[in-house]
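Lab notebook, bench 4. The sequencing result for the construct came back, and we need a structural model before the next group meeting so we can plan mutations. Quick request posted to the team channel:

Model the 3D structure of this chain.
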Amino acid sequence: MGTPPRMAVRYGAAALLWALALSGCTASAPRTPPTQPSPTPDSPAQICTSLVSYWAKETLKGSKWAGLDWEQKGLSNEQYAIHEDAVAAGRAEERTAGLNKALELVDRVVAQRCAAQNGATWSSENWRPPSEADHSPQ
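Done. Here's the predicted structure in token form:
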């Protein structure tokens, strides 16, 4: 058998294009869904609450990463102070009411403190500018 006659190829191509047009397929760019409004960014207090609460609860649960220091956890000095207070309150609650109640208490304590301190983001307390002695060759 040889190649199909030209007319058959044209009819086949026309039928294919017609079928594509009927099915909604076109060679144009794909349709994009309508855009959703961007979510409102979290406030400093919300970020603080999420971060500090997470690490305080991990500490109470004794997780693998609970032993990281405050810098490795991404906490500011103020957030670390909130963390330590929340862990202390959580440990006291755990002794009397159990771990689940302690974790709930941590969420409440952290949310209150982070809101009161507007995110507790001041973190330069321990930072000191390099001194001349740090730059001198030895």
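The longest helix spans residues 77-97.
Will bring this to the meeting.
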